[in-house]
Amino acid sequence: MREQLPGRVLALPRDHGGPRRKAFSAGCEGVTAVKNHANWEFAEWVLGAVLPGSTAFDPDKMEGIPLGDWIPFDLEERDDDLIEDDFLSYCEDLEGPLVVVNSTSFDDDQGPYFVEASRLIDFVKTFDTRVRHYFMWADVVVVSPVTGIVIVVQADGYLVKVRGKAVMSMPGDSGGEERRSPSP
Q1: Rounded CA gap, 178 and 184, in Å?
Q2: Which of 27, 76, 179, 182 would bridge with 18, disulfide CB 3.0–4.6 Å?
Q3: How far apart are the C-alpha atoms of 42 and 64, rounded to whole Å?
């Protein structure tokens, strides 16, 4: 079970049930430590701006996610298309550019993905043919700096959707707070 500290939630126990998750997770312990892609610094800066205090795309290092907000999200017993459709239903109110991180983001030749919200369905549904893996294979994090919404899916079957700070506005949008990217 999760432990809760003030303003902090620690990860749910990892029970990567099911054969495909067990096969994946067997060789991926500590996968979040491998971040060679040039976009990681910017992606983590965006995450930290939306959820202040967050330092990595790992639920253990993300602030502002209340324990009671996690809901079951079956990644094992359903068809892959149904899992994707269910996930995408939580993303309907996202706007603008998104930071998307999944298991392939930690591959040396990948990194965090930047996707316009209006293209997220196509990105998810064609991910396996463009990137070589199923999109929902393991943990997934989506950050919308325009809406301040962060969606996290853990491979052990939980999902949370929280609203942090909107830190970006779209042209013609009077809401949100514009920010500059981190200095090199």
Answers
A1: 19
A2: 76
A3: 20
